[in-house]
Amino acid sequence: MTRGQIANVDLVKQVNSSAVYRLIDSQGPISRVKIAELSNLAPASVTKITRTLLEHGLIREMEHQASTGGRRAISLTTVTRDFHLVSVKLGREELRLSLYDLDGQVLARDTLAFPRQQQDALLADLAGQIQRFVRRHGAGLRLIALAVVMPGLTDALRGQVIYHPSYPLAGVPLADRLRQATGLPVFIGNDIRALALAEHYFGASRDCLDSVLVSVHHGVGAGIITEGRIFKSLGRDVAEIGHIRVDPLGDRCHCGNFGCLETMVADAALLRQAEKMLAQGYQSLLDPQALTMAELCRAALAGDRLARNVLERAAEHLGQALAIMVNLFNPQKVLLTGALCDAERIVFPLIGKAIEYQSLPSFHQGLPIVRAHFQDDQTIGGLALVKRALLEGELLQLIIEPKV
Ligand SMILES: [Zn+2]
């Protein structure tokens, strides 16, 4: 047998095992007969695959009364509580670490300052922090993976960082480096794209296959889910909605262009606009010394004209960019996350209106615009990357047949 044939046999095994695991995950408790029927696999193959999954504790049997009465039937369901992972958000000079089980329960969290430093020192420090966290919280648990999510751009397929806004990591094979340091399979990805997937698996877009998530914080980012998958997240980044030009005469963006959406609706931009209007003498409840997004939203909801104005303009611009996404991807749901969601009552209807005026009627009719479920969990995207690797077979295969 040639090397190519061996690889193909492995691939077929991986594809079949993951197809069975996916069915049990999405439809369990489910019988072996039903799995065979839905997967088009021979019953003998299903028996063999489920035996392997059972041996590794990935699924378990449940006995119950068959719907037809008579003898008791056996169904299969996935085991999620026994498997754990560490998810790291490599943020802007900040590191967040969380320990989850596969069910999404959080067992431990840690947040620490993580200053800029030289590449080698940075990588050693990062590995050291992760190892300490694992030692402190992961003892006795079955850890199956490490995930790292970050702002900027990543090549998830190669496990490489393309660009990070705070650290000199361009071109670094981060997944390989951390795998060597921890001995765990490592999955990396952009934080917003991973968050969109987390919303699809566990959150607000669980009920649909196509959705768009937009996040407004330091910058403006988006994640597109099409047919239950992140649209293009493995090699090439997409959905850089923050750099859609909204105002040709606008401020200079860090990308080099002028008037990008990000320069107009990111948190800092909104606070700058409010500050400027206060300095010009507009009447307002806002205290210029204590200007935050929370205060801006609170004042707007209390009827403050200035605060309302700033948020309304932001909503219109966001809506304009979102309408482009709606025209391109026809999502079943639009999710928003960010500080301006505090003023949901003001912001969301205006975004809806802008989408309504600027996209195809059949695309926007009845289109829900909702708050993302995971507003405050910055590491949840990592859990989604691990779950994806399990469902799509790559990680499942490593658990079933660990590479020595
Ligand atoms: Zn830009």
UniProtKB/TrEMBL annotation:
<dbReference type="GO" id="GO:0003700">
    <property type="term" value="F:DNA-binding transcription factor activity"/>
</dbReference>
<dbReference type="InterPro" id="IPR036390">
    <property type="entry name" value="WH_DNA-bd_sf"/>
</dbReference>
<feature type="domain" description="HTH marR-type">
    <location>
        <begin position="22"/>
        <end position="62"/>
    </location>
</feature>
<protein>
    <submittedName>
        <fullName>Transcriptional regulator</fullName>
    </submittedName>
</protein>
<dbReference type="InterPro" id="IPR036388">
    <property type="entry name" value="WH-like_DNA-bd_sf"/>
</dbReference>
<keyword id="KW-0805">Transcription regulation</keyword>
<dbReference type="InterPro" id="IPR000600">
    <property type="entry name" value="ROK"/>
</dbReference>
<comment type="similarity">
    <text>Belongs to the ROK (NagC/XylR) family.</text>
</comment>
<dbReference type="InterPro" id="IPR000835">
    <property type="entry name" value="HTH_MarR-typ"/>
</dbReference>
<dbReference type="InterPro" id="IPR043129">
    <property type="entry name" value="ATPase_NBD"/>
</dbReference>
<dbReference type="GO" id="GO:0003677">
    <property type="term" value="F:DNA binding"/>
</dbReference>
<keyword id="KW-0119">Carbohydrate metabolism</keyword>
<dbReference type="Pfam" id="PF00480">
    <property type="entry name" value="ROK"/>
</dbReference>
<keyword id="KW-0804">Transcription</keyword>
<keyword id="KW-0238">DNA-binding</keyword>
<dbReference type="Pfam" id="PF01047">
    <property type="entry name" value="MarR"/>
</dbReference>
